[in-house]
C-alpha cells in the first residue's frame, strides 16, 4: 500500500500532465486563437504585397508642352509589357458609350467648362482599378496638386500607389525651336519636323501626298501662355511628389531631344522594375482607350513620327 505522501505526489504529477493538454484544447478551440492565427497569415500576405509595390510600374510623366511625353511613353509601351492610358481617350470613350460619367462630362464640355476633379478621377480610376499588378503609364492626369492628392488617396485605398514619376526638364528655347519646325498632316495626325524627321517631299505628307499645315497652337504666343499654365499647375505637384511619398520615386530627366532622353528613361525603368518584360513582336499597337485590345491607333502613329 502506498504511503499518503507518495499518493499525493502522484496526484500532483497527474494534475501537471493534464493542465497542458487542457490548455492546448482550450487554445485550439478558442475564437480568439482563431483570430490570432488568421491575423498572422493576413499580416504575412500584406507584407508580401507591400514588398511588391516597388516591382510594379505605375507611372505618370510630366513635361512642358512639346517636351516629348507622348513619344517617350509610346516607346516604352511599344518595347515593354506596359499599358498606356490617356485621359482624353478615356473621356471620349465614356462619352461615346453614354455612361453616367460620360453624359455628365459631355454636358460640361458642350458648355465650354472644365470637368471637376472628382469627375476626372472617376474617368481615370474606372480603368485603373482593373489593372491591379499590371504595369501602366497614365497620360494627362493629374495636372494639379488637388488632382494629385485625390489620385494618391484612391490608389492607396486600392493598395496600388504610384511607383514612378518622371519629370522631363527641357529648356524653353529648345521646345520653341522644335514646335516652330513642326508640320502636321491634319486628317491623320502624322507629324513631321524640318530639323529631323523631314517628309520625303517638303510640304507634303508621305502617305497621301496631301499638303502639310501648321498646328494652330504652334506659335510663340500660344506656347508662352501654355508654358505659364504648366508652371502654375505642375510646380506644386512636382514638389508634392518630391517630398518623399513611399514608394513613389520622382526622377528628373534632361536633354534636347527624345532620342537623347530615351536611354536615360529606359535605364531608370529597367533598373527600378526588374520584373518588367519586353513585349513579344506583334502586329498592331495597344490602344490607349482600351489597353486590352490591339489596334493601329493613330495616337501612336502621330507620336512615333513626332520629334517631341
Automatic annotation (TrEMBL):
<feature type="binding site">
    <location>
        <position position="87"/>
    </location>
    <ligand>
        <name>AMP</name>
    </ligand>
</feature>
<feature type="binding site">
    <location>
        <position position="258"/>
    </location>
    <ligand>
        <name>GTP</name>
    </ligand>
</feature>
<dbReference type="GO" id="GO:0005525">
    <property type="term" value="F:GTP binding"/>
</dbReference>
<dbReference type="InterPro" id="IPR007862">
    <property type="entry name" value="Adenylate_kinase_lid-dom"/>
</dbReference>
<feature type="binding site">
    <location>
        <position position="215"/>
    </location>
    <ligand>
        <name>AMP</name>
    </ligand>
</feature>
<feature type="binding site">
    <location>
        <begin position="191"/>
        <end position="192"/>
    </location>
    <ligand>
        <name>GTP</name>
    </ligand>
</feature>
<dbReference type="GO" id="GO:0046033">
    <property type="term" value="P:AMP metabolic process"/>
</dbReference>
<dbReference type="GO" id="GO:0006172">
    <property type="term" value="P:ADP biosynthetic process"/>
</dbReference>
<keyword id="KW-0496">Mitochondrion</keyword>
<dbReference type="GO" id="GO:0005524">
    <property type="term" value="F:ATP binding"/>
</dbReference>
<dbReference type="GO" id="GO:0004017">
    <property type="term" value="F:AMP kinase activity"/>
</dbReference>
<feature type="binding site">
    <location>
        <begin position="66"/>
        <end position="71"/>
    </location>
    <ligand>
        <name>GTP</name>
    </ligand>
</feature>
<feature type="binding site">
    <location>
        <position position="92"/>
    </location>
    <ligand>
        <name>AMP</name>
    </ligand>
</feature>
<keyword id="KW-0808">Transferase</keyword>
<feature type="binding site">
    <location>
        <position position="226"/>
    </location>
    <ligand>
        <name>AMP</name>
    </ligand>
</feature>
<dbReference type="InterPro" id="IPR006259">
    <property type="entry name" value="Adenyl_kin_sub"/>
</dbReference>
<keyword id="KW-0342">GTP-binding</keyword>
<keyword id="KW-0418">Kinase</keyword>
<dbReference type="GO" id="GO:0046039">
    <property type="term" value="P:GTP metabolic process"/>
</dbReference>
<dbReference type="InterPro" id="IPR033690">
    <property type="entry name" value="Adenylat_kinase_CS"/>
</dbReference>
<dbReference type="GO" id="GO:0046899">
    <property type="term" value="F:nucleoside triphosphate adenylate kinase activity"/>
</dbReference>
<feature type="domain" description="Adenylate kinase active site lid">
    <location>
        <begin position="182"/>
        <end position="217"/>
    </location>
</feature>
<keyword id="KW-0547">Nucleotide-binding</keyword>
<dbReference type="InterPro" id="IPR000850">
    <property type="entry name" value="Adenylat/UMP-CMP_kin"/>
</dbReference>
<feature type="binding site">
    <location>
        <begin position="113"/>
        <end position="115"/>
    </location>
    <ligand>
        <name>AMP</name>
    </ligand>
</feature>
<dbReference type="InterPro" id="IPR028586">
    <property type="entry name" value="AK3/Ak4_mitochondrial"/>
</dbReference>
<dbReference type="GO" id="GO:0005759">
    <property type="term" value="C:mitochondrial matrix"/>
</dbReference>
<dbReference type="InterPro" id="IPR036193">
    <property type="entry name" value="ADK_active_lid_dom_sf"/>
</dbReference>
<feature type="region of interest" description="NMPbind">
    <location>
        <begin position="86"/>
        <end position="115"/>
    </location>
</feature>
<comment type="similarity">
    <text>Belongs to the adenylate kinase family. AK3 subfamily.</text>
</comment>
<dbReference type="Pfam" id="PF00406">
    <property type="entry name" value="ADK"/>
</dbReference>
<comment type="function">
    <text>Involved in maintaining the homeostasis of cellular nucleotides by catalyzing the interconversion of nucleoside phosphates. Has GTP:AMP phosphotransferase and ITP:AMP phosphotransferase activities.</text>
</comment>
<dbReference type="Pfam" id="PF05191">
    <property type="entry name" value="ADK_lid"/>
</dbReference>
<protein>
    <recommendedName>
        <fullName>GTP:AMP phosphotransferase, mitochondrial</fullName>
        <ecNumber>2.7.4.10</ecNumber>
    </recommendedName>
</protein>
<dbReference type="GO" id="GO:0046041">
    <property type="term" value="P:ITP metabolic process"/>
</dbReference>
<feature type="binding site">
    <location>
        <begin position="140"/>
        <end position="143"/>
    </location>
    <ligand>
        <name>AMP</name>
    </ligand>
</feature>
<feature type="region of interest" description="LID">
    <location>
        <begin position="181"/>
        <end position="218"/>
    </location>
</feature>
<feature type="binding site">
    <location>
        <position position="182"/>
    </location>
    <ligand>
        <name>GTP</name>
    </ligand>
</feature>
<dbReference type="InterPro" id="IPR027417">
    <property type="entry name" value="P-loop_NTPase"/>
</dbReference>
<comment type="subunit">
    <text>Monomer.</text>
</comment>
<feature type="binding site">
    <location>
        <position position="147"/>
    </location>
    <ligand>
        <name>AMP</name>
    </ligand>
</feature>
